[in-house]
Amino acid sequence: MSSLADANVQSDLDIAPLLLPAKVLRNDAQAIKAAHELAQVARLQAAKRDRQRKLPWSEIEQFTRSGLGSISIPREYGGPQVSFVTLAEVFAIISAADPALGQIPQNQFGILNLVLGSATEAQKKQLFKSVLDGWRIGNAGPERGTKNTLELKARITADGVLNGQKFYSTGALFAHWVAVKALNDDGKQVLAFIRRGTPGLRIVDDWSGFGQRTTASGTILLNNVQADPELVVDNWRINDTPNIQGAVSQLIQAAIDAGIARGAIDDAIDFVKTRARPWIDAKVERASDDLYVIADIGRLKIELHAAQALLRKAGQVLDDVSAAPFTAESAARASIAVAEAKVLTTEISLLASEKLLELAGSRATLAEFNLDRHWRNARVHTLHDPVRWKYHAVGAYRLNGTLPNRHSWI
């Protein structure tokens, strides 16, 4: 792991990763199939990668080569434009195997949606084509030490010179484009697409979170980085009109949490069946015959199915509202549907990952199994935005007709 002390030293982290040819998938069924194939591979070494903080390079490259990186690109630009229902399911499938692998490309899809809503036609064509060709996009939006998540200290001058420092830069280390949020000379937010390897762009692998360990969500340093003026997107424009930017981002976040819950429950069932011992008072030969264990597994499955049902419903709402120009009401309906799903996926990911250890017993806490990674991943990822504010948004909308705020977290 790198440190800021090494930030001024040229390293391999500052070189663009190998660009590999990517398939272009053509429909939703192909996307689901590719997700299952990736999950099957990713699951094998997920616990080991987490334990060793080994970054999932080969898995990310399979993600890209398989065509999954471009599944949301509109058909008019050469992409398959899968449904939002399918997009959520793809991320849930992958995250059940390894939620770090789910989170790494998450920002790419949020950024692609932002490009769709606020970029010029020329910018859309260039950026969408690059992703279809196998380019990955990394995030350089959040910062530490600001008043809140909306405040930005990074600046870009009129001639395109960027300066600033970023953190929680998920996906950037694996990316060919780094999408940098900054304020221009007019105080408006823009999104500059910077090629990896551009002088002054430094990526520091200093993410030390106890969960989602292999997302490389660390620091980016920007020291007089020259942006291409043709690739600076006026993303402030998207907030001038109704949009589903926040809903799209949150849908994928909720899908990652649903995947964590699936993985935890699957491991709980497997461990109870194959390794756990029954409690003495149960008077049974197998832990899987313990009445209380059976009931708890049933409860977890019911709550998971409820969360997945709301997640699917949220995807359907996004598909419905995207079929027509957005209005304030339709955008709000999308945000609220996703918020409702996010509440349940948050709760089941935390509950399932904790219940896994309770039902599996003391042996499940041994480091050799690394089953605590499910709870660590759930706890860290669900801190992305507080679910208590989802309850507030839903209540205000249902009770008083108050439309939710327009930002990336609702």
UniProtKB/TrEMBL annotation:
EC number: 1.-.-.-
InterPro entries, A to Z: Acyl-CoA_DH_C (IPR013107), Acyl-CoA_Oxase/DH_mid-dom_sf (IPR046373), AcylCo_DH-like_C (IPR036250), AcylCoA_DH/ox_N (IPR013786), AcylCoA_DH/ox_N_sf (IPR037069), AcylCoA_DH/oxidase_NM_dom_sf (IPR009100), S04_starv_induced_SfnB (IPR023922)
Pfam family, one: Acyl-CoA_dh_N
Domain Acyl-CoA dehydrogenase/oxidase N-terminal: 43-134
Domain Acyl-CoA dehydrogenase C-terminal: 251-385
UniProt-recorded Gene Ontology molecular function terms: oxidoreductase activity
Keywords associated with the record: Oxidoreductase
Enzyme class: oxidoreductase
NCBIfam families assigned: sulfur_SfnB (TIGR04022)
Protein name, as recorded: SfnB family sulfur acquisition oxidoreductase
Organism expressing this protein natively: Pseudomonas monachiensis
